[in-house]
Design a protein that fits this description.
2 copies of one chain form a homodimer. Chain A is an alpha+beta fold. Chain A has 14 helices and 27 strands. Chain A is globular.
Chain lengths: 494, 494
């Protein structure tokens, strides 16, 4: 299999099509017959469940509670915040009727028109804000720190599995505070939570930064984001945290009496990550043989593949595998036991091996009669695609360390790629040359978003964010030569 | 507080209104501004999360995996199964447009009409079946054992929090099998899972039975259900499991090649429980002081209430409470550690105590300076509303037993109520008298659903189910006197 890869085409041949094939071969998701809506298959959903479990714990550890708000938003609610509606009006699924009736030709037609159309939530600031307005009376009711796990719908014209779908799954945090400082601290805290999750669990390095005004969430005063680099050098926005100021509290009348008895508008935030993270994870780590999963999020850490020629060997090999599985499952990794499966399906050995390679299982453990005789097993690592024999008890003792090593290796590899493809660019000529080639992240001083926008449109480049880490200092705009204190990452993007 | 109750009205005064007040006072849910859609507040949602965690584990232990399918169903899909569409056409939210545009008067109007209207899923047999049709080719692809956690919408005209809402949260299992026997075994197995969950976790006794043809799920060959009795004697259907035969596989073309090379339609099942279970739990256990939670599902098992007169006592009392909390959390109950909170808010003692009474926390532990001096605490049980002093270390040693005792007591109390209000009824006169009084479950022989329906409609009584346990035997119909082998539970119902 040296020359042939499990995925066709390869990344080098056709990155977008490679991405679709990785998903298909791993059994993660597929398009449904409903335009733009995907079916998330068990292997993809199990990954999402692991992401949810970790994020949910992080949200609770930072004082948040879960709740659930309506799927539908009255059309008039959207109208209340002008920029918000402007941002979402073009991609709203609109419910206009509440029943079906015979159309007289053997089919059905919508009936029972609603007095007011309902929007399927594209995001829930307005409907949650309307509820919060009822809950908040006094400073004693604050802060409100709530998250919801939900589906949302944005009627996108061009969709791609996980990255951009009409319906997607996400979490959206919505908080209310008595002061701007507190709301800003929350906004930053949740960005940090996302960055920690991306780096420590997804093994995906991210840049934390502030969005320029033109890239802000519709209605926000400030939007922070984490930006990751995919293996093709393109940027992917992986999570956002918004300081909404008093924009939504004014639109929704979220007011409270402060400690001095004065009535004031509250300060709100919202923050979210979605199933898009699955797309980011795939594009960060996978290779030409398919999906590669970071151990901390992999539904299965290790799969044991029993090998036997005939029925006479079967019982012995399976018993050995079961005992090995039991011992491995006693080892603790991250937040629980090592997750081990035995794949005893009746498939040819090669077929079975490649099944798990394509699904990204971090460790494959092959066990045959000869191995049993030596009390050793054959272990394949998905990250390096290297295999080697190892003593059975040695594996049990070392598996947790091995998983840690894979997790670290994946992060370091992604970081090295990002470092090698991040470059400071000082002037327009360099900028044009950089984005005509095989670009990554360009770091540039720039004087204003408006001034650079025409060039960006021409080159199909976007401003990703103004990195928090490198904030401060002075430079000259790469385009205009004007002195400026703003620096940003420019990149092609998903 | 002997005479006055925390909830007004009491159960005896006005059961439906008592139910609403229990929910409001416990902070579980409220109506939203969107007709029929509720907001599930943190305390209600935390209970749902516990239910989900247990059910999800039970589904996985029985071989199921989770996945996620689209929110929207093309209208034409519903048309394919005649009875199914008949059952749901009158309560469908219909999406007809995919954007909003200015209406010329400063407002918005729906725009971008869809070629085919989309239905917000009321249940997902059709959209999931269409996907399964693509997945199933051979007997080797079977069985498919998948569950999804999702929101669904049924445009009900009369709604009530948790019991009947336009949008609700649920899980829906959808499985495909090669044989009728296997599908039937699955249908029965999942009913057993629901019954186990209801009795062992919700502490709610249920009757397992088969629905009569008129009460079946639209499109099912057989519907099984679990039925519970609420404290007002009314029945509540708490979960259903459907044997769909080949009805949906014919409508959706789910076909496979069997071991003999013959192409056959597959056999399917579906099964679900919803946030309605929260309503059932509330009405089974709560009393005139509010919510009562079975320990296995309670978000908090025990709340520690520090009591001190002034700041000088505060530090000592809090330190004692923290140490007690730490020791209690080391105890293992059911599937994890005992869940303990300290409520150190600045509220009057009485107010704080009633806050937790109304929220149904199983144990309240009061700790004041005098208790500390004696190394004892004052413990209040929510199920019996009894309080008593107990040695601090004794409580640590006994808390798990105490929670077990409460769980058992709640089940036994509910079972005793059901037993006392279940009666065999032999003829029409008795039947009329029974349902004119303060009825519960009437067990009757009956010859046919059609024959008894007019009387049921007159008395507003329904056939709940034909209990599996008491199946078999012969009797005479309570109404017609005809010999029959069918026996059912009749009751007023939610």
């Amino acid at each position: 299999m040296a020359a042939k890869t499990a995925i066709t085409p390869t990344r080098a041949q056709d990155y977008p099509e490679w991405y679709q094939q990785v998903i298909a071969e791993a059994g993660m998701a597929e398009n449904s017959s409903v335009r733009g809506c995907m079916v998330i298959k068990p292997w993809g959903y199990a990954l999402w469940e692991n992401m949810q479990r970790v994020l949910d714990r992080m949200f609770k550890d930072t004082g948040h509670q879960n709740a659930y708000f309506p799927l539908f938003i009255p059309m008039s609610y959207l109208e209340k915040e002008a920029k918000h509606v402007e941002g979402f009006a073009k991609e709203c699924a609109v419910v206009t009727h509440h029943r079906l009736e015979p159309d007289g030709e053997g089919g059905l037609r919508p009936a029972g028109p609603l007095e007011e159309p309902l929007i399927v939530r594209p995001t829930s600031e307005t409907i949650i804000g309307a509820t919060y307005a009822k809950w908040v009376r006094s400073y004693r009711d604050l802060p409100i720190l709530i998250n919801q796990w939900a589906n949302v719908v944005r009627w996108e014209m061009r969709t791609r599995l996980f990255l951009r779908t009409a319906e997607f799954l996400w979490q959206e945090g919505h908080t209310v505070h008595a002061t701007a400082d507190e709301a800003m601290a929350e906004t930053r805290q949740m960005l940090d939570v996302y960055a920690t999750f991306a780096e420590e669990y997804m093994a995906m390095p991210v840049v934390k930064g502030e969005k320029t005004p033109g890239e802000r969430f519709p209605g926000a005063v400030m939007t922070l984001s984490i930006e990751a680099m995919m293996q093709d050098g393109k940027a992917l926005q992986a999570g956002t945290s918004h300081f909404l100021g008093q924009n939504f509290s004014r639109a929704q009348e979220i007011k409270f009496q402060d400690q001095n008895g004065e009535v004031a508008y509250a300060w709100t935030t919202s923050w979210g990550v979605s199933t898009r993270l699955i797309g980011a994870l795939i594009m960060t780590h996978s290779d030409d043989d398919g999906l590669v999963l970071p151990p901390k999020l992999a539904p299965t850490h290790a799969v044991i593949l029993p090998i036997y020629r005939d029925e006479s060997q079967r019982a012995e090999v399976l018993a050995y595998c079961e005992a090995l599985k039991a011992d491995l499952k006693k080892q603790m990794y991250d937040d629980g036991a090592v997750r081990v499966d035995i794949d005893d399906r009746d498939l040819r050995g090669g077929e079975k091996k490649w099944y798990h390679v394509k699904r990204g299982v971090p460790l494959r453990i092959e066990v045959g009669p000869k191995d049993i005789a030596n009390n050793s097993v054959f272990v394949g690592r998905r990250d390096t695609n290297e295999s080697q024999g190892i003593g059975r008890d040695d594996l049990v003792a070392k598996i947790v360390g091995l998983l840690d090593e894979i997790q670290t290796n994946l992060f370091n590899r992604a970081l090295a790629l990002r470092t090698s493809r991040t470059q400071e660019i000082a002037n327009e000529a360099e900028f044009r040359k950089y984005f005509a080639g095989n670009p990554g992240f360009a770091i540039c001083w720039f004087s204003s978003e408006e001034e650079v926008q025409p060039l960006l449109d021409e080159l199909k480049v976007t401003i990703r964010c103004m990195p928090i880490e490198s904030a401060g200092g002075e430079g000259v705009c790469f385009l205009t030569g004007k002195p400026t204190s703003q620096r940003a990452i420019f990149a092609k993007a998903y």
